[in-house]
Amino acid sequence: MTDDQIGVDETRKLLVLDDDEPFRNRLVRAMEKRGFSVTGAGSVAEGLEAVKAEPPAYAVLDMRLTDGSGLDVVTALRDANPDARIIMLTGYGNIATAVAAVKAGAVDYLPKPADADAVAAALLDHAEALPPPPDNPMSADRVRWEHIQRVFEQCGRNVSETARRLRMHRRTLQRILNKHAPRG
User: Fold this and answer.
1) b/e map of 148-172 (b: 16 or more CB within 10 Å)?
2) What's CA 17's distance to the chain center, in Å?
3) Does residue 113 have a cis bond before it (omega within 30 degrees)?
4) pLDDT tens readout for residues 75-105
5) Which domain of life is it from (predicted)?
6) Going from the N-terminus, what domains does the chain have, and what CATH number goes with each?
7) Cβ 88 vs Cβ 101: under 8 Å
């Protein structure tokens, strides 16, 4: 056993699934320091393989991956270990994806980049109370911009279809899409 693994509790097996390799590696190391036995995966296929090999008690899953959705792994994990505590991470925070994640079996939903303390707290907090408010929540302008970007991506980057679904004039949408993301 190495010095980094001292204090690792084998009942605290954690799967970290994220296709952003630097972020995943940092989170894996940080969670190991917090006493978790961590397996990292970079794709839905790797995540499903890890769940089949040894179903973890905890999971931190990215919502959008290059080969699919973290929701696919939630379903497999729920089948393998119904008591697993699952946290979804996403860079596209919106109500629809949060609802989908919770319906699939996630216990919490955190925006990326999430720090290891927030992830550990969400995984280990078994109380049904609401989590504390974020220290730096996104501004209303940023939330609006993120929502528009998400719908735009879901519509295959089709401006006309996105404008129709958002009930917005096409030119207005084009102006918004040409701007940089608001701060905060």
Assistant:
1) bbbbbeebeeeeeebbeebeeeeee
2) 9
3) yes
4) 888 888 888 888 888 776 556 666 777 777 7
5) Bacteria
6) 3-124 (3.40.50.2300), 140-178 (1.10.10)
7) yes
What whole-number percentage of the chain has pLDDT above 70? 85
Residues 6+ apart with CB under 8 A from 59: 14, 15, 16, 17, 73, 74, 77, 84, 85, 86, 87
CB 64 within 8 A of CB 40: no
CB neighbours of residue 46 within 10 Å: 18
Q: What angle do CA 125, 129, 133 make, to 5 degrees?
A: 90
36-47 pLDDT, tens per residue? 999 998 888 998
Among candidate residues 25, 30, 43, 56, the one with its CA nearest the CA of residue 118: 30
CA of residue 183 relative to chain centroid, distance: 21
Instruction: For residue 116, give both structure tokens.
Output: 């290891």
Output the DSSP codes for 10-64.
Answer: TT-EEEEE-S-HHHHHHHHHHHHHTT-EEEEESSHHHHHHHHHHS--SEEEEESE
Angle subtended at Cα 108 by Cα 103 and Cα 111, rounded to the nearest 5 degrees: 115
Return phi, psi of residue 80, to 5°: -80, -35
Question: Do 46 and 94 meet the contact criterion of CB atoms below 8 Å apart?
Answer: no
